[in-house]
Every structure is written in structure tokens, then in C-alpha cells.
Design goal:
- It is built from 9 helices and 18 strands.
- The longest helix has 19 residues, at 318-336.
- The chain is globular, with a radius of gyration of 20 Å.
- The protein has helices spanning 30-43, 90-99, 118-121, 163-166, 193-199, 209-222, 248-262, 282-288, 318-336, and strands spanning 2-8, 20-27, 47-50, 56-58, 63-70, 75-78, 81-85, 124-125, 128-129, 134-141, 146-151, 171-179, 245-247, 271-272, 277-279, 300-302, 310-312, 345-347.
- A hairpin with a 2-residue loop joins strand 8 and strand 9 (128-129).
- By secondary structure, it is of the alpha+beta class.
- The chain has a 5-stranded antiparallel sheet with strand order 6-7-12-10-11. Strands 1-2-5-3 form a 4-stranded mixed sheet, with helices on one face.
């Protein structure tokens, strides 16, 4: 294990923000991960798990404890069964499954971060979520002091949520297992209308796997959602807010506010989200509340390519970013009565 003191954390995040960690450990095996976690717990030291840093906002004061960077490697295919070490780069793993001719995660191409973070957030995009293909998650249970294997049904997956996210101090993900599909080199049925349109097919159709992956990468790049060190629109955490899920009463109140503000002929985006619930678009809310692409004059601004991404233009601090986020949350609530919820994990700070 590598150990550093007063180590910068900003370079380990896609926002490139945040102060140092009192101690930074980089673990390259599951055994090293478990050893570091046990040592921190035994000493009562605060512990921060760092993977790809694509969903992490660290306060300007840094982290007064041990940051554990998981850099384990492992990509194992057995037929259609895939096992990934938590430290595997997710985008590379997706590319390898496409090369192997296996469907199920091809529309999750270009999402930054590590494989171990995907079940925590139930990562999803363009009609796919990892919960649809994950069979098991192997994790170190800090409460029980042992390694456990949790089947999909015990992971409590929901929209951008899981058992691991609801109890972040308990589990450290070590490995993730997936069941993919051999569809003769074709993708899973396309569920997302934008993807189908870009491919010139209908929703529900299958296309060649490589074509599906490349199309998603192009769509993401057009929105600044594929990492590029030279493009400050990608100095972000991708989608900063989750899409709100509203009860029937909340949705009716929202519709009334939307019609008052924008006219009776306006129809906000709406998608079924379970019994009596409707999901609407955070990006639509932000835009219609007056926060358009490129909004802001300071070092933290809304992306010039997508209203859902807040970005560091190169000289921002975490407080600059949070000030912009709070302005957006307040503006959307004032306009539509809907409270946006941040998607990235915040360390030492809050909205």
C-alpha cells in the first residue's frame, strides 16, 4: 500500500476541487482494502472511500482522516458472467464487454468512475441501469467485520440509490458481478428514445453493440459528459441533480405552477416512476427557471453544453460551486415548488 500525508484530493476528483486528506492510502488488492478499513475503524479514524472521484465533492478544508483510494484491478469473463474489481475503470470495462460481444451495459459507455461505485449509485443512463445486470456485490461489512456477498435482491436498488448509498458507513464494495447477454453481437433492446432516434431505429430494436456504444459516446460528448482535460465543461460530476420523483399531489401542484409560469399549453417532461409517482426532468426545470447553458459569471458555472452539469472553469473553489448549486436549487423551488437533490456525494460540506 502507498501512504501519503497531507495529500491533495482535488486531482483524484473530476471536479478537481477540495482540500487535502490528512492521510491518503492507495490499495491495489482486496486484502489491502480490508486491512486499511479495519485499521481506520480500530483507531476510530474517519474514513473516506475514493474510487474514480467522478461523484465526489470535497470541501475546501479537505478531509481530516484517512482517504482510501481503491485501485484494485480485475476483469474476469466466464461465458456471459462478468466479475469486476471495484477499482476497474468503468469505461474500459464497458468497452471490453462490447469487444467480447456481450450486451447489457453498452449504453453506460463513457460514464466516468470506477466499477465499485456503480452499485452504490445504481448508475444509469440512456435506458440502462446497472441494477438490471448486477447479480451480486461482494463487499466488506464494517459492522460485521467480514466479507459478505449480497445478491441483487438484497441491494435495495432504486433510482440512483441502493442499500450501499443509504448506509454509506457500513459497506466497502470489493467486487461486482454481472449477468450479460449474448445476442449475437447485438445490443440489448434500446429503451431510450434519444438513442433510438440517433441510430435511426425504433425503441425496442437492437443494433450492433459497437454502434450502440459509439452512439452513446457521441451523445454524451455533445453534452460534455465524457471526460476531456482540455474541456472545462467536463470538469464536473456529470448530472449534478437527480430527476425529481413526485407524488400525485406534488405533480399536480407542479403542473399548476408550470402552467402559471409558462402557459397552459406547456407540457413538462413526465415519466411513470412507480405507483402514484411521476418523474420529471431536472434539466428542464433548471432551464425553465432561467438557468440556461453557460449560466454564471464566476469560476463555477453551468456547462455550456448541458444545464444539468455544474462545472469548474479552472479556478473555482468548492464554495464557488456550492454557491451556484444553492442558487439553482432556490431558483427552481421558487419557480416550480420542486426541491432539487444533489446527486454527488458531499464530504465536509452540504447544500
Amino acid at each position: 500500500m502507498q501512504e501519503l500525508h497531507e495529500a491533495p484530493l482535488a486531482p483524484l476528483t473530476t471536479f478537481r476541487l477540495g482540500g487535502p486528506a490528512a492521510r491518503l492510502i492507495t490499495a491495489t488488492t482486496d486484502a489491502e482494502v480490508i486491512e486499511a478499513v479495519r485499521a481506520a475503524d480500530a483507531a476510530g479514524t474517519p474514513l473516506l472511500i475514493v474510487g474514480g472521484g467522478s461523484n465526489l465533492i470535497i470541501g475546501d478544508k479537505g478531509f481530516a482522516g484517512t482517504a482510501l483510494r481503491i485501485a484494485t484491478q480485475g476483469f474476469e469473463l466466464d461465458g456471459t458472467q462478468l466479475e469486476l474489481a471495484a477499482g476497474e475503470v468503468w469505461t474500459d470495462a464497458v468497452a471490453h464487454t462490447v469487444e467480447a460481444g456481450l450486451a447489457g451495459i453498452e449504453c453506460l459507455a463513457g460514464i466516468p468512475g470506477s466499477a465499485g461505485a456503480t452499485p452504490i449509485q445504481n448508475v444509469g443512463a440512456y435506458g440502462q441501469e446497472v441494477s438490471s445486470t448486477i447479480t451480486e456485490v461482494i463487499a466488506y461489512d464494517r459492522e460485521a467485520g467480514e466479507t459478505v456477498t449480497l445478491p441483487n435482491a438484497e441491494c435495495a436498488f432504486s433510482y440512483r440509490h441502493s442499500r450501499f448509498k443509504s448506509d454509506p458507513e457500513r459497506y466497502v464494495v470489493l467486487r461486482v458481478r454481472f449477468a450479460l447477454e449474448d445476442a449475437g453481437g447485438l445490443s440489448a433492446p434500446l429503451k431510450y428514445p434519444e438513442t433510438a432516434r440517433a441510430l435511426g431505429v425504433e425503441a425496442g430494436d437492437r443494433v450492433p453493440l459497437g454502434q450502440a456504444r459509439e452512439t452513446v459516446l457521441k451523445l454524451r460528448a455533445g453534452k460534455g459528459m465524457v471526460l476531456d482535460p482540455e474541456d472545462h465543461d467536463t470538469w464536473s460530476a456529470g448530472s449534478f441533480f437527480t430527476n425529481p420523483i413526485l407524488t400525485a399531489g406534488e405533480y399536480e401542484a407542479f403542473l399548476e405552477r408550470a402552467h402559471e409560469r409558462l402557459g397552459a399549453d406547456v407540457t413538462p417532461p413526465a415519466y411513470p416512476a412507480g405507483e402514484g409517482r411521476t418523474k420529471t426532468s431536472a434539466a428542464w426545470l433548471i432551464d425553465k427557471a432561467g438557468f440556461t447553458k453557460g449560466y454564471g459569471t464566476g469560476p463555477a458555472r453551468i456547462s455550456t453544453k448541458h444545464t444539468l452539469a455544474l462545472t469548474n472553469r479552472g479556478a473555482a473553489t468548492t464554495e464557488d460551486l456550492l454557491a451556484l448549486a444553492r442558487e439553482v436549487v432556490a431558483g427552481v423551488h421558487e419557480a416550480f415548488g420542486v426541491t432539487l437533490v444533489n446527486e454527488p456525494v458531499m464530504v465536509g460540506v452540504s447544500l
